[in-house]
Design a protein that fits this description.
It contains 25 helices and 18 strands. The C terminus is likely disordered. A hairpin with a 2-residue loop joins strand 7 and strand 8. The protein is an alpha+beta fold. It has a four-stranded antiparallel beta sheet with strand order 2-3-1-4, with helices on both faces. Helix 8 packs antiparallel against helix 9, helix 10 packs across helix 20 and helix 19 runs antiparallel to helix 22.
């Protein structure tokens, strides 16, 4: 990693040209080829899939997307000449458009069923030649404009359907742009430097743009669902900014501690960069865990999201060091550069709120752990009533034409009209089955289509809405009782049945999926931290975080707490595939934070064998960057409420809640409190297992990359001297600390009554020596130790501003 970082830093123009060429090349190819996204919800060996396969063979002409034009009169009837004279010409004009296959209207022969009983609502069906994602948006907009041009006072015209929904989507990139702006604000507040703020954004945008264009190209060779690029943007933008943030933070810290920009960049990539590689790998492995579900729909999601994460990691370890080379010292703010020039390098001993909170957690671990656990349990309670299903146009905002068309059809023809079931009969007495279905509880209307190729289609309209549990019960009744009793060979399909089967299969396979990703996380952390307790704690925390985030999701989207307020439409069931995707992403992101937090604790534990100190120092030194990274992700994820896609909004809010709970409650409170309570058992590993486990260092020892080469093999030495005040009097009880140039504490002592001190030095090299005492300020100096002991006296000024702490 160090060699790669140094090469990219020194050959920065070459790296930049390669990245610019890649971004524009893939972007041009993606734009020229277009997209071919396909929502393949079918599942092998399910009843709805068998029904779909029979339908496709028997009725190929119905393959295109079918949308609906609905109109309602306030007075009179839709049969009135004043209404027909406006609607019929519009329908004929739509039917003549290129790309429209067929229009069935209520004024044609046999169209009486398309008029409601009271005669005030009617509908026409517009069947396009292509599926919704392939229908040109301009054609759909022409259909909408032509139909709504027939409106007048007392005559309302609305349209519904998948193709129509596409005309209501906000401009592409709005959610991403808002997320980027919000992240920029957080980064500027964290860094105080415009150039440092831009670094993570440029890296993330380069990776995301390449990933999205590559995904669009892949959609031509494999099934990629429409929601995949949205989820790819969501996760790619979040991790892309965060990974760059971790590396830039380490780089800036190295420069402030006296390192040259090139060496600091190499150190940052060889420490935080290695952690980023590990974290990105765990995210990709977690995403690949979705393949355990054996659902074709999820395969495309895995491809899109994993590709974006891989490119984010690649940009962080290649493009970022090149950009650091371009900026040099400008990665620091002007004030930091002036202070560095005036006072020299300073160790950034952790202080402020992070250090005070870390000390508080150490003093009261039981209270902190108990409170955090109570909060998480309360938030998780709604998950007990979670119901998986599918969102439809009835969940759109009230102002949309699709939602109003949905409501008009439900008003005129019953709530079940928006989700008819398709009973496909391949053998047996179809008419006898029709009679049995008509007398079945929960059925509002039955109509049989003339048979084709030996297959009969029976349209069944339930009395309840597509999202109602009673509709699910009707599907079970038809499959388990009505069809077997008729003796016919038939299968129940349709969109409602497909999503019911999808939810059922998801529920059945979810435990195996959760077990797989939790086990994987356990093994990775076991190898990385040489402990049984740390990965067990992490697995438990992941489950708690998942339950609480899904509880928030249920409260908002299923119970409707604030859905209209935040502009995401009407409440309904949780989309069936969302738990799988969210659990994969949540697992990966939780592993990121766990790795960055515990790796610092583990480093301190290896050095001191003091668990309390290891947990306190690890939390104090990492909580600020973890919280900053989490805040950025929350901004990015929450912005996807603006995507215009219900699944995107669900994933965005769910993941924003998960990250907030994970970073601000679990990693900041519950995990460190639990580790304080567990004590040294945190780091216990049986000897037999220790010998058999492979060694995997998330971060190398900092001295190996920060000190001079001679230090690795040189003999141990000491620094000793007297701590005095400005009058030459000895200062007793002064804390003297020796730190590596990277800022890690190597030794710490207290001066004696005569002011003398002595600290151990591991080997010759350059170090930082810090001294502080009550009523005095702190002093930090750079010391160079040769093979022999170094005598170094320290002078403290009474009442001086504490420049270190």
């Amino acid at each position: 990693m160090a060699a790669l970082a140094r090469w990219c830093y020194r050959h920065r123009l070459v790296v930049l040209l390669l990245w610019v060429g890649t971004v524009f090349g893939v972007g041009f190819a993606g734009s020229a080829a277009g997209t071919d996204y396909a929502n393949t919800f079918s599942l092998p060996d399910t009843d709805s899939t068998r029904a779909y396969d029979l339908m496709e063979k028997a009725f190929p002409q119905s393959a295109g997307d079918t949308d609906t034009v609905v109109w309602k009169v306030d007075e009179g009837s839709v049969r009135d000449e004043s209404v027909r004279s406006r609607i019929e010409p519009a329908l004929k004009e739509i039917g003549a458009m290129k790309g429209v296959g067929e229009v069935t209207d209520p004024y044609a022969a046999g169209g009486a069923a398309q008029i409601s009983e009271n005669g005030r609502i009617a509908y026409a069906q517009v069947t396009f030649v292509e599926q919704a994602n392939a229908v040109p948006k301009e054609l759909v907009e022409d259909v909408v404009d032509t139909a709504q041009a027939a409106e007048r006072d007392g005559l309302q015209v609305e349209l519904g359907g998948q193709a129509i929904t596409r005309t209501q989507e906000p401009p592409t990139g709005i959610a991403e742009m808002v997320g980027i702006v919000a992240a920029a604000v957080v980064l500027f507040l964290a860094f105080g430097s415009l150039f440092a703020m831009l670094l993570p954004l440029v890296v993330a945008i380069a990776a995301l743009g390449t990933g999205l264009m590559a995904t669009s190209l892949l959609s031509h060779v494999t099934d990629v669902p429409e929601v995949a690029p949205l989820l790819g943007s969501l996760i790619g933008l979040g991790v892309g900014i965060d990974y760059a943030l971790f590396i830039v933070t380490r780089h800036r810290r190295g420069i402030l501690r006296g390192m040259k920009p090139e060496e600091s960049a190499v150190v940052a990539l060889n420490t935080s960069g290695r952690a980023v590689l590990f974290a990105g790998g765990t995210v990709c492995i977690a995403l690949a865990g979705m393949l355990v579900m054996n659902m074709r729909f999820l395969d495309g999601v895995v491809i899109a999201t994993s590709l974006t994460v891989v490119l984010s990691v690649l940009a962080a370890v290649t493009l970022l060091p090149a950009l650091l080379g371009l900026l040099g010292m400008r990665v620091l703010s002007r004030r930091q550069r002036r202070r560095l020039a005036a006072t020299g390098p300073e160790p950034e001993l952790t202080s402020g709120l992070a250090a005070r909170w870390s000390a508080y957690v150490q003093k009261r671990p039981r209270a902190v752990a108990g409170l955090a656990l109570v909060v998480m349990v309360i938030l998780a309670l709604p998950v007990l009533s979670i119901r998986l299903g599918a969102t439809d146009q009835g969940n759109h905002q009230e102002s949309t034409t699709t939602r109003q068309a949905y409501d008009l059809l439900a008003e005129g023809f019953g709530p079940g009209f928006n989700g008819p079931l398709q009973v496909v009969v391949s053998e047996g007495d179809a008419q006898g089955l029709v009679s049995r279905i008509e007398s079945t509880e929960g059925v509002a209307q039955v109509a049989a289509v003339p048979p084709a190729n030996g297959v009969t289609l029976i349209q069944v309209v339930p009395t309840t809405s597509p999202q109602s549990e009673k509709t699910d019960q009707l599907i079970d009744r038809l499959r388990d009782d009505v069809i077997p009793a008729s003796g016919a060979e038939a299968h129940v399909g349709g969109v409602t049945a497909v999503f019911k089967d999808f939810a059922s299969v998801t529920g059945e396979r979810l435990p195996y999926f959760v077990a797989a990703i939790i086990s994987l996380g356990f093994l990775l952390l076991l190898v990385a931290f040489r402990s049984l307790v740390v990965p067990l704690t992490a697995a438990l925390m992941n489950l708690i975080a998942a339950a609480a985030s899904f509880g928030v999701l249920v409260a908002i989207f299923q119970w409707g707490w604030g859905t209209e307020l935040i502009g995401i439409g009407k409440e309904g069931p949780i989309t069936a595939f969302l738990p799988v995707i969210m659990l994969s992403l949540l697992f990966g992101l939780s592993m990121d934070y766990q790795v960055f937090l515990v790796s610092r604790m583990h480093e301190e534990w290896v050095h001191t064998k003091d668990n309390a100190r290891a947990v306190r120092v690890g939390l104090a030194e990492t909580s600020r960057v973890i919280n900053c990274a989490a805040l950025i992700m929350i901004c990015v994820f929450s912005a996807f409420v603006l995507s215009g896609d219900m699944e995107g909004a669900m994933a965005g809010i769910g993941l924003a809640a998960a990250v907030a709970l994970d970073a601000f409650i679990l990693r900041t409170a519950l995990v460190p409190a639990a580790m304080h309570l567990l004590g040294k058992s945190n780091w216990w590993l049986p000897e037999g297992l220790e010998r058999r486990l492979p060694h995997l260092a998330v971060e190398p020892r900092e001295e190996a990359v920060t000190e001079t080469p001679a230090e690795d093999d040189g003999p141990a030495s000491v620094v000793h001297g007297i701590v005095r005040d400005t009058d030459g009097e000895p200062v007793a009880g002064a804390a003297v600390t020796l730190l590596s140039r990277g800022g890690r504490q190597l030794d710490r002592v207290v001066s004696l009554a005569d002011g003398s001190y002595i600290v151990s030095v591991p080997a010759p090299g350059t170090y930082l020596l810090s001294a502080s005492a009550p009523s005095y300020g702190s002093r930090a100096s750079q010391v160079v130790v040769s093979e022999g002991p170094l005598v170094y006296d320290v002078e403290l000024v009474e009442g001086e501003l504490d420049s270190v702490n």
